[in-house]
Amino acid sequence: MTMCATEGINKKYKLVPPDGGWGYMICVGVIINLVVLRGFTNSHGAIFKERFLELDMSTTSVSVLNCLGTLCISVSGFSTGFLLKYTSIRTLGLIAALFYSTGSFASTLCNTEGLFFIFQGILQNIGHGLMINLCFTIINQYFRKKRLYAMSIVQTVPALAILVTPKLVKWIFDRYGSHWTLLLLSAVSLNNVLAVTIMQPVSLYMNEELPENKEIELKILLRDKKSNNASISSNLSNETNHLHRHTLIANKGNVITRFKETKLYKNFILSNACLGLSICLFSDVKFVSMLPQALYYMGWNEALVARALMLFGLGNLLTRMLFVYISKWLTKLGTHDIYVIGLLIACLSRLGMLWSDNRIIMQSFLVIVGLARAIIEILHPLVIADCVSAENFSHALGVSMLAFGLISVVFGPIISAIRELTDSYATAFYILTSCFAITVIFWTIELVYKKNAHKRKPKGSLPDKS
Fold first, then answer.
1. Which sign does the torsion angle of CA 129, 133, 134, 139 carry?
2. Contact (Cβ atoms closer than 8 angstroms) between residue 116 and residue 107
3. In angstroms, rounded to a whole number, what is the distance separating the alpha carbons of residues 149 and 438?
4. What is the pLDDT of residues 260-309, one digit of tens each?
5. DSSP string, 374-406
6. Assessment of whether the complete model's pTM goes beyond 0.85
7. Distance of alpha carbon 278 from its chain centroid, rounded?
8. Helix (H, G, I), strand (E, B) or coil at 273
9. Residues 330 and 148: beta-carbon distance below 8 Å
């Protein structure tokens, strides 16, 4: 009887992520991946400038290449969740790393524009999209209570790399030339293979969580001690019927799974956590990409532009480092609330920068713009993780990546065309900033509605798990 009682108690235990331990090695692997994927983005133009000239690629061809790369990243990120049904994270990560490295290496050797599009535009970016989704998926699996802390760490180190790599690339470029610089970066991309091998399944490191309500467990123990053989037989019969019912349901598993996924996509796509996040991320990326040209257009020289970008990067980096130290306090506030605050800060700081005619004040606002960008980037996967279950996170992140890619491909050229037709960067910036303002309004309404609904819920009602 004691054994039965113990088994009854053990059934109340649940396996939870380690929130540390090997999870920190996972952070190391994700950092390596993100440094390789993002650390050289600011130097992309300088790295491939001579390569574009060698292949006689026009400005239109380069724009098409960028759009193709964005689509490949989005589609591969979207397909990650489906592929994980048939393979493990580590296996899919190794495939993605090989795609990325092969595309990077082959693009340095190909001698036609078509081959360059295949290797650089398609193959490498497919690996890029897969690894981005896998990195955030495995962090979400290994961390629960310390998720914000882990996400802050893995996004702070690549931000440091972005500040260092441009000078490093320039030094290598001046010393060895374009061809050997590309080959060296291809060799650096092989580190992704090492990083992925670290990513062991979280099932190997799950911990048992103790029951929170010990009074209930004591009642269960006393009840189980008074049980007789008849009740045990009844339980065994119930378990047999339960197992039989599960066997019948398993035959319909594919249909039910598809139905749940369809419901997930339908509810998630139209939510702020998908469409709102994607619109804001597009606005942020487009704003930052147009910022240097806008400053040159205003008559700033190279020294002033470099200083402005340095202040922007400083605000971004310091905010990421601050998130590492205050993650416990921020977790209590809630990721959705913090994200809306970040959007509001981004909106107001950009308006302040656009309305100011003083360069010093504009540079001060750029620090705040960098601060807001750090909040938006760090919390992007966390907001999604709080809206869906752990099993559906990869699917949801993939949907968000696909939405961002489609929005970028469709509306990116429209924003650029508006800038050209109006001959004004300010007009384009106002449109991009309005995306933040509209999202803040809708998200605030949603948060207020949810909090009021929670207050109206009867005390005895069960929590909503949807």
1. positive
2. yes
3. 29
4. 555 556 677 777 888 888 999 999 989 988 888 888 888 888 888 888 88
5. HHHHHHHHHHHHHHS-GGGHHHHHHHHHHHHHH
6. no
7. 11
8. helix
9. yes
